[in-house]
Structure formats: structure tokens, C-alpha cells
Specification:
642 residues, alpha+beta, Immunoglobulin-like, Zincin-like, Neutral Protease, domain 2, 4 domains
Length: 642
């Protein structure tokens, strides 16, 4: 393979206050399984010091760098072109020089044109603190004018976009591999938050991403763009556009093949012992290289092979921490937080039997908890990784956190509504177990208003976000949690638990699953486990399409006295919304209550007749488990019933 290192003088041009050291260290050549494409990096405003190449016979040669790329006065790519590019494979060599907060990357990326027209060039973006060095297509150097975009998808508030000229247009549906190298430094930056008036301490606790000796944390698109992307520029404060773009990025990346080989150079006595790539632990192999001297004393390597991205942004963490084992959990902590380990371990032990009763005896992986450097740093979660401050808290708080986080160790799905929806669902079930159903429903209700605000009033006004393709948290978390409560009532706890236990994420991650139509894997499993085998109507209105929320009302109630003290109560219900739902209907007497369930079609009506002992005094429709546009509980009092 071949790898080159440059002194990125252009970084000092863009961010002089942040970049004192220059990344000029010699990096050790690593073996690579990528195709043998020649690549000596080219930078924007720097000088290539060397390019090291190893041929088939094992001989090492050094070649000159490539010409400096053109700096474009304005972006060349259009938003349509940025949206057309879908990444289907990453094969990356990532070198970190932690003492200089620096990174150098060779990335082989395969992109597909998902537009209806050919692409003449491919837009590739990285953080503005990084510089493109060289990009090759089909074994040849490509021209790539570089422009600076204002976009808060990166913590600096800007991106460097290379418009890569293709040797011939890329037709619709066609794919091509690009060989790109880039380098620079990633210090902590909260520039995007500071410019909108966020207090500095708050901004730094939110945007904590950066490369450093004791801790490296790179959360990916939406925080720091350390890998190539193609996105529409978005600015904080423009409604929810940034968060929608983050969701769209994850959705478009889902299903991509991902491989990363990591090399970390660290100073003497500062050996890292934990690396996490896309939330997966990657064992570090540490080598001390005395010939490099005291300043760069050691090298650690790790590899993530044969991985497939789910609904996630690629992330990278490297740190020195102390490991502690708990129930299905590994905690990596700082010395200052050692005292809190016992409390966290006890919480994991307490919630594990509950999760086993629903999801099975063994999780698919261990939960990894990584202690963040500052106790006020904002938590981050991806897959079975929770990066947070491991500090003391009440048992109730820790159990609530771990009921959610540990669910990701059991339930891993490339579909956001399953991965996040099940985790939030289990969190509310834990609240129900500990504090009762009323408190759990109150927690559900707390998110309903925000959901009702974004849902379309009718399918004709907006397509909304079907759960199967949702990009916003209010859908794939809040609405999905409601949906699992509905499934619980419709199919029953045993059937829902059986489907969750049997779910295999690999069977649900075909290369085209985001475009698949028809019943999904989880729907099939639930129908097999449930007495009610046909749940098509429910999935059609809530998962495969977004028909908004139901809008129920009790039109009328007709009680009629029967023999032997019984009453027959007819409850007429209408649904002004477009989404069908099944809701509980409860009739209360002075001494009794009877509940039955009824399906109310979208824009339709239903009648439920309930026989009850004693004079009926109150009728209730819905109990808060089905989200509605207004209230999720309807009550009619019958005190005047003769």
C-alpha cells in the first residue's frame, strides 16, 4: 500500500489560533486489503514531504507529491448533485497523531448515482479543519476544485468540498470508486454554537469532539465530518433542518460496507487501551518503536472488518481508561469516577432480569460505557455504545438510563424505528414496572405534543415520515415508542416478546432494504407469534406510510337496561384523522368496569357494544397508548342515565 504525510500549511491559514503544531510525523506503513491503487496525497496549501510506497516485492520507494489543487472562489456542486451521491462502501486507513491533534486518512469510497441524470463530478466534503490532498479515479489523478461551504454539520461551521471531475459522466444507478487522501488537525471547536450566542462553557460541553492524547472522540456527521460525505449545507437555527439532514445522512448511509484500519501514534507513557469504531470495540495492538524517540514513542493499531452501517454516523473513539465488568456491560472509566462504578454495576444487575424476560437470556453484544472527559459533557449513544460521564446518581436514575442503553445490546437493527423505538419502549416499560402504568403513560404523553405538531394533517398535505424511512427523532423515537405500545395491546405481551427475541438484524439488512416494499422481517415474526395473524392494516398506516395521527371522539353513548341488573352500552366513535387505530373502550359502573377493544378506521366510524353489570356512569375511549392530534383520552359521563 501507499500512504503519504504532508505539512498542512493551509490549516494555519484557515484556523491560526487552533493549530500551533504542524503534523509532519513519519507514519508507519500498514498492510491494506484495498485494491493496489497508487496514491500520493495532494494538499490545498501545503507541501508533500514524502510519499511512501511498498511494491509487490516488498521494496519501498519514495515519489514526489502531486500539484496543488485549485481553490474555487464559490461552490461548484449543486444541492441536487449532493443529494444524488450515495455512499455504498468505505475502506479507510486512519492515522492519528494524538500529540498534535492530527489525522491523516486514505479513504477508498464507492459512491452510487441515485439521481435520474448523469453526474459529471462528485462532491466530497470534509471538515474545514482538514484539507484534501489527492483524489484519484480509475487509477488516475482527478481534478477537484475545493470550495468552503458554510454548514453546521461540522463543529467548525464549515466544510471543505471537493468537486471531483469524472473521466466520463456517471449514469443513473452506476457506481464508481474514488481514492482520496486528506489530513489536518481536529482540535475541539464550538465555533458553530458560539456564533449563535451559546455561552462558551455550554458550547464546549456540547461540541466536545476532537483528537487528543488522553481522549479522542469523533462522533461523525452532525458533530465533526472526519470521513468523506456529500450533504446539503445546513445552518443551526433554521428550524429542524440540521437534524433532518443528520437523519437523512444516516438513512442514506445505512447498508454501506465499512472497513477501517486505525493507527494511533502516542507519546511515551500515554498508551491508549480502548478503541471503538462505530460503537464496536476494536482490540488495540500496541507496539513500542524506540527508533522514533521519546516524542513519538508508541504505535497502536486496530481494525474493524466486514462491517455494515446501520442507521448511524461513523464514529471513532480512542482513550486510556480503566475497564470494569458488570452485567452484560463493560465500563471504561477515569480514575476520578472509580467510586461510581459500583452504583452503575448495581443498576445493570437490577435491570438485566427485566430485559431478559422480554428480549431473551443473552444479548447480541456487550454494552460499552465510555467515561467522557468532563462531567458535564453531553452524552452520546450509537448502537451498543454509551459515551457519558460515569458519575454518581440515584439508583432510579441509573436504572432508567441502563434499561434503555442495555436494550441496544439485545436489540440491534439497521432500521431506526426498531433500534431506537424498542429501546425507548423498554425504557417506558421499566418505568411502568417501577412506578406504575400511570407514570409510564405520563412519560409517553410528554412527547405527544411535539409529534402532533410535525405530523401532516392529511396525507395529501405532506408525505410525512413513515416509520420505515423516518429521519427525525420525534418519529423514530417518540412515534415508534407509541407504536410498540399499540403492538403490545393488539398482539399481546407474549407475542411481542417472541417477535423481539426471534428478530435477526442480518435478515433485515439486505442491500436494498431501504427500498424494499411489503411486509418487513419484524412484521412477519409478529404475525407468526400472534393469534391475530393479519396486522397488515396497522403496519400499513403507521410504518409503511405516514397518515398522520388519529383524531377520535365519542359521538354518542346509548345505555340500555337488560335483565338481572345488566346494561348494554353502545358507544359510537368517529375518527377525523387518516390513520386507523385500535383503542380500548371502557365502560364504568359504580361497582365494575369492562374494557373491550375496537378498530376505528381512518376517516371512519365504529360502534362498540359492551355488556356491564350495574348502571353505567362513565365511558372512556383510548387510555393514552394511542397518540392523537389533540387528547389521547376521551371521557363521557353518564350521571343522568335513567
Amino acid at each position: 500500500m501507499k500512504f503519504s504525510v504532508a505539512c498542512p500549511r493551509s490549516l494555519r491559514h484557515f484556523l491560526p489560533a487552533l493549530l500551533a503544531p504542524v503534523f509532519c510525523a513519519i507514519l508507519i506503513a500498514q498492510s491494506h486489503t484495498a485494491p493496489p491503487v497508487q496514491a500520493a496525497p495532494q494538499q490545498s496549501n501545503g507541501k508533500v514531504i514524502f510519499s511512501r510506497s511498498t511494491d509487490d516485492s516488498g521494496q519501498t520507494t519514495t515519489v514526489a507529491g502531486s500539484p496543488t489543487p485549485q481553490l474555487a472562489p464559490a461552490p461548484i456542486a449543486t444541492d441536487d448533485e449532493r443529494k444524488a451521491v450515495t455512499f455504498v462502501a468505505f475502506d479507510m486507513d486512519v492515522h492519528l497523531h494524538t500529540a498534535d491533534r492530527a489525522i491523516a486518512v486514505r479513504a477508498l469510497v464507492t459512491v452510487r448515482n441515485d439521481a435520474q441524470t448523469p453526474l459529471v463530478h462528485i462532491p466530497l466534503q470534509i471538515s474545514s479543519s482538514l484539507n484534501w490532498e489527492r483524489i484519484r479515479v480509475l487509477g488516475r489523478d482527478a481534478a477537484f476544485p475545493v470550495a468552503t461551504l458554510n454548514s453546521d454539520a461540522d463543529h467548525t461551521g464549515q466544510l471543505h468540498e471537493a468537486a471531483v471531475t469524472l473521466p466520463q459522466p456517471l449514469g443513473p444507478g452506476q457506481s464508481i470508486q474514488l481514492d482520496a487522501t486528506y489530513s489536518g488537525a481536529i482540535p475541539q471547536s464550538a465555533q458553530r454554537l458560539l456564533v449563535i450566542g451559546t455561552p462558551q462553557d455550554v458550547a464546549l460541553r456540547s461540541d466536545w469532539d476532537g483528537i487528543g492524547v488522553p481522549f479522542t472522540g469523533l462522533r461523525g456527521f452532525g458533530n465533526v465530518v472526519w470521513y468523506p460525505v456529500s450533504s446539503v449545507p445546513v445552518i443551526l437555527g433554521d428550524g429542524a433542518r440540521l437534524f433532518d439532514e443528520m437523519g437523512e445522512h444516516k438513512l442514506r448511509m445505512a447498508g454501506a460496507q465499512f472497513r477501517l484500519h486505525l493507527t494511533v501514534e502516542f507519546p511515551h507513557g500515554k498508551t491508549p487501551n480502548v478503541a471503538l469504531i462505530n460503537g464496536h470495540p476494536a482490540p488495540l495492538t500496541v507496539t513500542t518503536v524506540d527508533s522514533l524517540g521519546q516524542e513519538i514513542n508508541g504505535v497502536a493499531t486496530a481494525t474493524l472488518d466486514n462491517s455494515v452501517l446501520g442507521f448511524e454516523a461513523p464514529s471513532l473513539f480512542v482513550a486510556a481508561r480503566t475497564p470494569h465488568q458488570a452485567a452484560n456491560t463493560t465500563l471504561w472509566t477515569l480514575p476520578i469516577d472509580e467510586a461510581a462504578v459500583e452504583s452503575w454495576s448495581a443498576a445493570a444487575t437490577n435491570v438485566t432480569p427485566f430485559l431478559q424476560s422480554w428480549l431473551g437470556q443473552r444479548p447480541r453484544s456487550q454494552l460499552t460505557i465510555l467515561d467522557l472527559p468532563d462531567p458535564d459533557d453531553a452524552p452520546f449513544e450509537t448502537g451498543a455504545l454509551l459515551a457519558t460521564s460515569v458519575r454518581e446518581a440515584s439508583p432510579e436514575q441509573l436504572q432508567n438510563v441502563l434499561a434503555h442503553a442495555l436494550t441496544h445490546a439485545w436489540m440491534q437493527s439497521p432500521r431506526a424505528w426498531l433500534s431506537e423505538g424498542v429501546a425507548h419502549f423498554m425504557g417506558t416499560l421499566w418505568v411502568e414496572k417501577q412506578r406504575g402504568r400511570t407514570r409510564a403513560l405520563e412519560q409517553l404523553e410528554a412527547g405527544r405534543t411535539a409529534l402532533a405538531l410535525v405530523e401532516p394533517a392529511s396525507p395529501g398535505i405532506s408525505a410525512g415520515q413513515p416509520l420505515a424511512f423516518a429521519i427525525s427523532p420525534v418519529y423514530y423515537r417518540t412515534k415508534a415508542t407509541y407504536f410498540f405500545w399499540m403492538l403490545r395491546d393488539v398482539a399481546g405481551d407474549p407475542a411481542l416478546s417472541a417477535a423481539l427475541r426471534a428478530y435477526d438484524p442480518a435478515a433485515d439488512a439486505s442491500p436494498g432494504y431501504l427500498r424494499d416494499r411489503g411486509p418487513g422481517e419484524f412484521e412477519k415474526l409478529l404475525e407468526q407469534a400472534s393469534i391475530r395473524r393479519d396486522l397488515t392494516w396497522l403496519f400499513a398506516d403507521w410504518v409503511d406510510a405516514d397518515k398522520g395521527l388519529p383524531d377520535l371522539s365519542i359521538d354518542s353513548v346509548f345505555p340500555e337496561a337488560e335483565k338481572t341488573g345488566q346494561w348494554l352500552v353502545a358507544v359510537n366513535i368517529s375518527n377525523a384523522g387518516y390513520a386507523s387505530c385500535e383503542v380500548p373502550v371502557t365502560v364504568h359502573s359504580d361497582t365494575n368496569a369492562v374494557t373491550q377493544r375496537v378498530v376505528v378506521p381512518g376517516h371512519g366510524k365504529a360502534v362498540q357494544r359492551i355488556l356491564i353489570v350495574g348502571k353505567p356512569v362513565r365511558v372512556e375511549v383510548n387510555d393514552g397508548t394511542v397518540p392523537e392530534t389533540q387528547s389521547s383520552l376521551h371521557v363521557t359521563n353518564l350521571e343522568s342515565t335513567p
